Amino acid sequence: MTSYESLGGLAAGASSGLCHWLKHMKLYRVVGLMALCLLIVPFIFYQLLMSAESSVPHNDIHRSRSQLDTFEEVSPLKAADLKLRIDEMLRIKGTVSLELRDLESRRQKLQSDIGLYNQKIDELKQELARQQTELDRLKISVEQAQVAQREAVLRNTPELALPKPLYSDSLPSPVAPAGKEQRRVCKMSSCFDHSRCSLTSGFPVYLYDPDTVSVVNGGYDIDGFLRTTIKQTLGYNAHLTTDPKKACVFLVLVGEALPEHEATMKNNRYNAPQQAEGAQPEAGSVNATRLRLLPYWGGDGRNHVLLNFARREIGTGTGNMLRGTGIDTGRAMVVQSSFEESQFRAGFDLIAPPILGPPGGDVWQECAQMLPARRKYLLSFQGELSGQNGSAAGAAQGAAHDDTELDMVDEFIIEHLKEMSSGRTQDHFMLQFECVPATEQRHPTSVRDWSLCGTDNSRKSVLKESTFALLLAPTGTAVSSTLLQARLYEALRAGAIPLILGGDQVELPYAETIEWRRVVIALPKARITELHFLLRAIPDADLLTMRRQGRLVWERYLSSVQSTVDTIVASLRDRLGIPPKPVRAVVAHSVFNSSFVPLKSDPVIDAEPEESLGPIEPPYPSPAFRRNYTAALMQSREMWNDWADPFALYPQLPFDPVLPSDAKFIGSHMGFRPIGKGAGGAGKEFGESLGGNYPREQFTTVILTYEREQVLMDSLGRLYGLPYLHKVIVVWNSPKPPLEDLRWPDIGVPVHVVRAPRNSLNNRFLPFDAIETEAVLSVDDDAHLRHDEILFGFRVWREHRDRVVGFPGRFHAWDVNTLDSWNYNSNYSCELSMVLTGAAFIHKYYTYLYTYTLPQAIRDKVDEYMNCEDIAMNFLVSHVTRKPPVKVTSRWTFRCPGCPVSLSEDDTHFQERHKCINFFTKVFGYTPLLNTQYRADSILFKTRIPHDKQKCFKFI
């Protein structure tokens, strides 16, 4: 056995022995052993530590105070030296701490300076961006000026505008009276003095005061209602002048006679002997006239207009009293309801309806609803033939025949109508050819004509249930009669389509202006046998169109004294080709005093916009439409369509208020160009010119606000950098002015804060003179639109200039539960009929229509509810254009979480809008809103096009 083996054996034996010992050791022994170890081990460590300290050198400055004390006992000199060194180190430590504190304060100051410098750098970057934007504006302004210069050179025509008005400076000079033959063939070229009516005069009209000037003697006077009403209504006309030297025409009110003089008038008319040509009328008789004594008559009455209105007694035959009595009217034009063929001078005299309506104001209450298309009676007529021929030959012939005897043609017509009404047909007729007793008193007339039966209310009730109203032309040589005009008035008022039998021999009012074939059906008497077939062949859509046209003509031309007077003046001016005077714009009075300068603030600038939306151009207005002579040359019947003659409707509008229902644009006479024929075209050029209408155009933003200053400031700030923005009009509806310390964002374009006359939502659509663009973006003060959305809406509007183009869509729906009303609905739907003007583009043209032509009852209802002005605008535009609005993008509504409570959050908001739709329907006579499922979204909107594919995109 080797030594290793012996050692291994010993180790193994020892280990086994230890294990055996531990195995048999008692527990108390183990505990005692562990306690002994706990006492011995610390003692050993303490001894080792003490030995280590004893080995430390005496010059160690990090030893403890106890050791120093020990060293002081051992070596006092060394201890004193060591204390000096320690004190020195402590002083150095304090100095270093002070220096560290100073360095820390310097570091903090440097950090603060760095922050200020970074802030200045950001401000300089913003200023650089602002200056860069302004530089871009100036560059674009220079480019625009160069483009305008090139266009002017290519066009080579000056910008024409009306020069200063040129008036006549003298009264009409006396001349010899015109002969009878010359008076009978009077035309505008032979009997009118054009030298008094220059194209720039504005057509001044002078009215002889009917209270001080009496033109007919013999005891006659003019009805007091006519005297007062004509003076009042003509006073509202923009063409009235009080200076006779400047006057183009002179109006003379000559009719009608008072009822107490009817017997004298009738006897003088029918029993007066015939005068020889050139003989002077006898003094004291009706034939004796004071027309020649009028101060501005001038001997022959040139440029005079004699107004002979019939009003009180339609059946008396007074409508033709001027010509019937042989009164010498000279070269004066005659305006009345009744004319005979030998008396009427076409193109010179004017047929006007009788005065049957109120002086003015809203007349929609008198009208019937347009639906249903077919009513209870297919055809109605109530009348009785009476009277005698008005001419001398007719009077002699009438004396030989009984007044109740009908000629063969009239007998055949009446018999056929009776047979048609009693035949086997599902259609109902109301034909009455004899007046029953106890009706209105009937008077003999000078013309063999059909008198009215019953009262006005009884006739109205029948006509409101009639699809067509039969109008029988007067017999003899009459081209127009007061009774015929009265029947036309009543038929159009009730919504019954006039059917004139013998229409080829009669003249209707304002025939030079109104295209009556869109309103009435005129048939010769020979078509009586085909009448029933024709009435049944007309589809419902055409019936509704004609009924709508008829109501429009009645409201604008025949309904009131105001409409009659304005139409007469406008028709005469239209004959002369004189442009009307501009409409009055609403002056935009600033809410600030002239000396007050509002505070400005810099808006937040997006340093890195997502995409370039367009150039930031300097503000420039839309091309102004100047009322020069070319406006008269552009008139065309095809352009009028729904509105017939705009001048008669609105004689003071700056442009023709005419919107063709089937046109693709509002009209070239408004400064528009047909789509596809203007500047620009398809592809790249189409995109650059924003629709191909104008190469350069901007829009004005109109914001209505009421005591929400911070919301308004935020909305204004979001408009900074918006391309094509001309200016912002803020309509301040609150009676309290803005706070003086309110800071208005400087958005790069003018911001006009306009003081509203009163708190009204109608102020949103006032035609302010500060609006210099045709495009108007109407937005609420809490509407939040992105720039790309606004610009896309502007592009779409330029392709649909005659519509409302906007973002929040709504629709109206018939109440299927009650089946008697319309409901307003804001739910998500596949179709819409309205686009709310809280965020929409409209043409400024519609602000004139809304303010000056929309029935006052609608604007009053908007003020009553403080609601529904957007619905009213949609009704108006759809009524005029017969087109639905255009919705753009997927926006359906707008939310402003940080805004105060708005009007739309009231519980009664929707109930009021239900009522508004139904009330507006009553005023318009129907619901003009049209449904559409069309929505405009941008092609490839925000689509990232690869560079190698962009060439194809330019030609899409």
Low-pLDDT windows of residues: 58-64, 257-288, 389-404, 631-694, 950-956
The quaternary organization reads as single chain
End-to-end separation:
108 Å
Number of helices: 27
Strand order of the largest sheet: 18-16-15-19-24-20-25-26
What is the percent of helical residues? Answer: 25-40%
Q: Helix/strand-derived class?
A: alpha/beta
Biggest β-sheet description: 8 strands, mixed
Task: Tell me the Rg in angstroms.
Answer: 47 Å
Percentage of residues in strands: 5-15%
Q: What's the overall average pLDDT, rounded?
A: 76
* Overall geometry: elongated
What is the number of beta strands? 26
Describe the structure.
With 956 residues, the chain is α/β, with parallel strands linked by helices. The protein has 27 helices and 26 strands. The strands form 6 sheets. It has an 8-stranded mixed sheet. Strands 7, 8, 9, 10, 12 and 13 form a 6-stranded mixed sheet that branches. The longest helix has 80 residues, at 76-155. The radius of gyration is 47 Å and the shape is elongated. Residues 58-64, 257-288, 389-404, 631-694 and 950-956 have low confidence and may be disordered.
Q: What are the main properties of this structure?
A:
26 strands; eight-stranded mixed β-sheet; disordered C terminus; 956 residues; elongated; alpha/beta; six-stranded mixed β-sheet; 27 helices
Topology, element by element:
Elements: H1 3-24, H2 27-54, H3 65-74, H4 76-155, H5 180-184, H6 188-191, E1 205-207, H7 224-235, E2 249-255, H8 262-271, E3 304-308, H9 321-324, E4 333-336, E5 339-340, E6 350-351, E7 377-386, H10 392-399, H11 408-422, E8 429-432, E9 449-452, H12 456-463, E10 466-472, E11 478-480, H13 482-494, E12 497-501, E13 521-523, H14 531-537, H15 540-558, H16 561-576, E14 599-601, H17 630-633, H18 637-640, H19 646-649, H20 683-688, E15 699-705, H21 709-717, E16 725-732, E17 743-745, E18 751-755, E19 775-780, H22 787-799, E20 805-806, E21 809-814, E22 822-825, E23 834-835, E24 839-843, H23 844-852, H24 856-865, H25 869-881, E25 886-888, H26 909-924, E26 935-936, H27 950-953
Parallel strand pairs: 1-2, 2-3, 3-4, 4-6, 7-8, 7-10, 10-12, 12-13, 14-17, 15-16, 15-19, 16-18, 20-25, 25-26
Antiparallel strand pairs: 5-11, 7-9, 19-24, 20-24, 21-22, 21-23
